[in-house]
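ARCHIVE CARD
SHELF: 3
SLOT: left
DATA:
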Amino acid sequence: MSVVNYGTREITCKIVYYGPGRSGKTTNLQHVYSQLPEERKGKMVSLATETDRTLFFDFLPLDLGTISGFATRFQLYTVPGQVYYAATRKLVLQGVDGVVFVADSQSRQLEENIESLQDLHSNLAEEGFDPRTLDETLNFRGVPHFSASAINGGGVFETLRSIASLVLSRLSAPAAKES
């Protein structure tokens, strides 16, 4: 759920990159961070193990302009994909405004992709979202999808622009109804 600060006239939205371990979630955020000008990004925080796998989350505050006179900031998070971090994934999903599911394109990772997507459905249900009725937000049968490579950056910004646009359109809709 977006946080609105009327004092500072800021709206903060949370986007979580979700998927199996080593699918490219952190690398997506690292690419976004490396390509943004300093004045449009905050500090990137990353917690990793000795083998460079994210333990908790990567956090990247991102300034993407204004909506109805409010500055919009996006906080991008990743979840740890490893199965034994199930509780941490639930915590990171709390208050989410948008989810990017990052699948591993290797055919040998199909089982892990399916397991991770099922885990996402379950965790969203626990957050009070019915994955079957999230048609406008997640639309499992027709979501915008992008072939992307976090390693070389292809498709990474297209993915971020798409999810940011979906979140902002959801924020704009209630404001338009109130006018």
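SLOT: right
DATA:
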Amino acid sequence: MAVPVISIVGNSKSGKTSLIEKLIPALKKRGYRVGSIKHAREINMETEKDNQRHLKAGSEATVLAAPRQIILFKPAEDLKIEEIRQIFDSNLDLIVCEGFKHAICLK
């Protein structure tokens, strides 16, 4: 069964993010696990700030979606490569990782 979606729509600077900041904690208080999506025409620091506001309000994860690009923001501790690779789409054949100098290589 697909996860239901609630859409908050309105003009720029009309208070959509402020409303979502109040809605997420209210839903969580009722026992819901809430994620969020922020649509943007382009990805820039202003749209990324809105995603941080969603997370601060209690969103389990939030996606910034712009044409031809999405970014997933998810609160996390210092994850191991094995944990991070589980976030990727299962249709991938390979994940190339940069960094993690002290991690053990995956088999």
